[in-house]
Amino acid sequence: MSITTRVFKTSRIVQPIHYRGLATALPPSSEASTSTSRRFQKLDDGLTFNDFLSGDIPPDQERVVLGKTNQPRLPAFLKHPIATGASYSGIKKDLRGLGLHTVCEEAKCPNIGECWGGGKGNATATIMLMGDQCTRGCRFCSVKTSRAPPPLDIHEPEHTAEAISRWGLGYIVLTSVDRDDLLDGGAAHIASTISKIKQKAPSILVEALTPDFANKGVEAIHTVASSGLDVFAHNVETVERCTPFVRDRRAGFQQSLKVLQEAKIGARKAGREILTKSSIMLGVGEEEHEVIETLKRLRDSDVDVVTFGQYMRPTKRHMKVDRYVLPEEFARWKEVAEGMGFLYVASGPLVRSSYKAGEFFIENVLKKRRAASAQKAAEQLTSSQDSAATARL
């Protein structure tokens, strides 16, 4: 071994630099040679480039998945085209001109193009009352949250009725944010909106998807239920076990059942007949037996209509999707619920609580019930008149 020393002179210091050289090279280790040879070895996994292009997975092999693997990939049947069209633009213009909000936009509903693009008389939009800021913070919902939302717009009931009268619809859905800051949770505001809609368009059918009015008393529920609406909707959203992880902690499963029960009681006290409706999201971690138990408890609460839909994560700040449910499973849940005696069941990956197909069905049911009630009343009136005439003779 030899050592060579070079010295560089500067104005201040002299710094030696040492180079070390070996007279003989070390023999390559077996580990190093093995590592080098492996680098150039072809992976013998039975897959070729064509296998990844064809879309077919070879038997007993798994395809490589790129990207984040802790989140299920969005299936093709959940993808929707971007909303466009004259009807869509017209509804959006009406809403902006009157300062109204819709849950279709706030909750990023995938069906907005289908519902808003139906043409005059067929298009539907779910108007969200009491502003666009909610006092709750549910983990699945993209509506903005605020501890102290702005005061209610006193003109909103009139503006809502005006917008609906322009569209010439037969069925309209109203929903609202939760307003725990209000004494009655906004019940009087919702009831006023329904009353004004009925004044402008007496034949229109109104569905109201309401908050749970927690700690507001049953009077708040009865106020909405007796306001003239036709369908009282309130969503349990998920099974009881998952409720604390999916919804705001102030939203209780039992409280939601109570809302649905009290809605029927309040309507009967006012001499009205209404339908009650609820919705369940799948894909948040629920078990099959829990879904069945939830359906049983909804029927015990005299709920008439239930819908099933796939939870879809609105943003990365919201809870993750546990799994994407196949259309075949949604079809099975429809059969199960119908077998339990629900009047109507809408079940599918893109079904939401405010779902156009379900609304058309309910509209037909209610119109038939109205016709039957009118016929019965006419028969009773004719019978009483005949009895009076016979008595005079």
TrEMBL record:
The keyword Transferase applies. Its main location: mitochondrion. [4Fe-4S] cluster 1 binds at residues 104, 109, 115, 354. Pathway: Protein modification; protein lipoylation via endogenous pathway; protein N(6)-(lipoyl)lysine from octanoyl-[acyl-carrier-protein]: step 2/2. GO terms for molecular function: 4 iron, 4 sulfur cluster binding; lipoate synthase activity; metal ion binding. This is Lipoyl synthase, mitochondrial. It comes from Tremella mesenterica. PANTHER family: LIPOYL SYNTHASE, LIPOYL SYNTHASE, MITOCHONDRIAL. Keywords: 4Fe-4S, Iron, Iron-sulfur, Metal-binding, Mitochondrion, S-adenosyl-L-methionine, Transferase. Binds 2 [4Fe-4S] clusters per subunit. One cluster is coordinated with 3 cysteines and an exchangeable S-adenosyl-L-methionine. It catalyses: [[Fe-S] cluster scaffold protein carrying a second [4Fe-4S](2+) cluster] + N(6)-octanoyl-L-lysyl-[protein] + 2 oxidized [2Fe-2S]-[ferredoxin] + 2 S-adenosyl-L-methionine + 4 H(+) = [[Fe-S] cluster scaffold protein] + N(6)-[(R)-dihydrolipoyl]-L-lysyl-[protein] + 4 Fe(3+) + 2 hydrogen sulfide + 2 5'-deoxyadenosine + 2 L-methionine + 2 reduced [2Fe-2S]-[ferredoxin]. GO terms for biological process: protein lipoylation. Its cofactor is [4Fe-4S] cluster. It is an enzyme of class 2 (transferase). Belongs to the radical SAM superfamily. Lipoyl synthase family. Residues 119-343 form the Radical SAM core domain. Its EC number is 2.8.1.8. [4Fe-4S] cluster 2 binds at residues 134, 138, 141. GO terms for cellular component: mitochondrion. It is found in: Mitochondrion. NCBIfam families: lipA, PRK05481.1, PRK12928.1.
